Amino acid sequence: MGSALLVTIQVDMEDQTALQLQDDLAAKIETSGANGVLIDISALEIVDSFVGRMLASISGIARVLDATTVVVGMQPAVAITLVELGLSLHGVKTALNVKRGMLLLEQSRQGEALEPD
Length: 117
What we know:
This protein is α/β, with parallel strands linked by helices. The chain has 4 helices and 4 strands; from the N terminus they run E-H-E-H-E-H-E-H. It has a 4-stranded parallel beta sheet, sandwiched between helices. The longest helix is centred in the first third of the chain and has 18 residues, at 15-32. This is RsbT antagonist protein RsbS.
């Protein structure tokens, strides 16, 4: 969608799937020049500590590649689980839904464009 990649996770992620997603996203950001990644996790009903760490890792990798990551659609049970596991998802921006997530990405791009060199 424009200069942003939209990733929709439709199944509960296993460790290998999360690692593959991380690798695929890094490659796609590099080849496409995307400056934003929106990850929709509304279909995820459960997460474990590994998947939580992978979301934070994906955000860090995207940041190094000059892209902002926004995670949208987090269900309350998933948020509670992440808090109980002590995972803060440092550096990961969140939004309630895809529309708000895209607005957040746009605001992020505009804010970066306004910052002096």
